[in-house]
Model the fold of this input.
Amino acid sequence: MDKNVILKSVLTEFEGLAKIPRPSGHEKQVSDYLAARLRRMGLKVIQDEYNNIIADKKAAAGFEHKPLILLQGHMDMVCIAEAGVDYDPLHDSIKIHNDGKFLSAAGTSLGADDGMGIAIILYVLAQDFVHGPLRVIFTVDEEQSMTGARGLDKKYLDNVKYLINCDSEDYDMVTVGSAGNVRIAMEKQVVWNKPQGNCALHIGIKHLLGGHSGTEIGRNRCNAIKILGFILENLMEKNIQFSLADMNGGTADNAIAAQASVKIVCDAADRPAIEQTLSQMKQGFQEIYGATEKNAVFVFEQTELPDRVIDGKSTEALIALLCMVHSGVYAMSEKTTQLPKLSSNIGRMNIADDKITVHILSRSATNASLAFIKTAQRLSAECSGFKAVLSPTSPAWNGDPDSKLVKLAGQVFTEQNGRPMKVEFIHGGLECNYFADKNNVIDIISIGPTNIDIHTPQERLQLDTVVPQVLLVQTLIGRLAAEGK
Done:
């Protein structure tokens, strides 16, 4: 088929998804949409208790006894908007912009992670070509807690021979392993007091690069929540008296916080000293991040006095926690100097419902290191007077770089593109981790078109990698049917 026709068809599928709000934890509408779409194709569809979609497509005539191939992607997306953009992720559609080279969104994240993976799968399923039995699983909540993959009944994986996950971001790379992770919510109840000062100040930092905490964590990008914690600590070191009225930052656990702000109450006479401290911190910021965070904006302005502030002990505890908890890379991989092995990210924090909550996502290439970091994070929380609430751990996935599916993917890629395909382990987390944990004999790979700056409003999909990705997936399925045993 003509490549322009393929691209147009895939983009039509993606546009259908982009119209449906689908933040993590709110996938019922998109799940219903996908179930109906697959049924119209003639597939047998199951919608499980989590709203995961499991659908089967019969093999082409004569190929019924070939190995079962599973195509997989997730239906939720990270919803992030630029400052000042009016965007409600629970109700608003994504406004797509196509400049002929890249697909992007107007002021928000695009959701090509993993909407484009699903769109490609839908396109392939609609084609008439030689294939064995196919199964499709579209999961929920991948970006937040992986509830869908974690809760999926393993019976849907029992007879699968090959699994092609379509949730990677580099077209010329096949992923064969990804980090495990654990999400930790550090919580502390606060007591509210009446403010004693006569001046309220808004201090913040915005327009940082942010980015995915797995793929971008080792690229010297500043975490806005972390730097704001150090600013407040500097005020305390200088014995500048202030009370904390509010503090918030970040948008997702798995996104490096690109903005954070704090509201403090102080004596008006201390305002010049506070401003001077902020100026000094900006100089230090430039020394550390000047080469990468070129668009950073520091905010310092007077604002209205609040009705209440949190107690001093809670303020001190929060500042201590933000300064103690590491946000960044702990160790690099022995396999390649470009790959983090162990990291943590402060993704979100806020004060609401009489409680401070700091959300942290830690990643590790090994399950043993993940166990150690969980203990370290728990003790850091407790030493600061916080309670650590740990979500279920996602296991690490360390696949076989020499498996049949990996080699075949590399062979087909070279035939189609005239160059070799990279075989890599990644520091981000994939649902493949859970699938491998549920059935460790499945031959698994993760592939996808090139998607840049995911989990940010700058997210953009490289359009000239979409059709090659379609052809790679479809050819792999055909070859496995022809060669499968």
Notes: The mean pLDDT is 95. The first helix runs from residue 3 to 18. The first strand starts at residue 44 and ends at 47. The two ends are 29 Å apart (CA to CA).
